[in-house]
Write a structure and sequence with these properties.
113 residues, mainly beta, Jelly Rolls, 5-stranded antiparallel β-sheet, 1 helix
């Protein structure tokens, strides 16, 4: 029987999950089907490279800038950012407490618009 339970994950739950596994930049908190929910709190610099799946960031705390390969935009709590698979992006000039929810979904290579 398939699990139809709701999931609630707080910022404190994400923090309590601890550091990401070796080789990862974010902590995986939950998955369901193609959806993966992660917590990303870069320290010092954002070292990520383009991903193979579409993703959404929702800034949870702190402040910074989101660079999409062409321009920077403010990234503050509540900001929602969509990044298609393969797109260059990173966070810059972020505060020490900066952290964001990350939602990966869909097939490798991203969804077709």
């Amino acid at each position: 029987m398939e699990d139809k339970s709701c999931r609630v994950i707080s910022i404190q739950d994400a923090i309590d999950a601890g550091a990401p596994a070796d080789g990862n930049l974010a902590s995986n908190l939950f998955s369901h089907g193609s959806l993966e929910v992660e917590w990303y709190a870069p320290a010092g610099e954002d070292r990520q490279s383009p991903h193979t799946r579409d993703e959404i960031y929702v800034i949870a705390r702190g402040r910074g800038e989101f660079f999409d390969g062409k321009m920077s935009r403010s990234a503050v709590p509540g900001t929602c950012i969509f990044v298609p698979a393969g797109a260059t992006h990173r966070f810059e000039n972020f505060s020490d407490d900066f952290a964001t929810w990350v939602f990966f979904y869909g097939p490798e290579g991203g969804e077709t618009p």
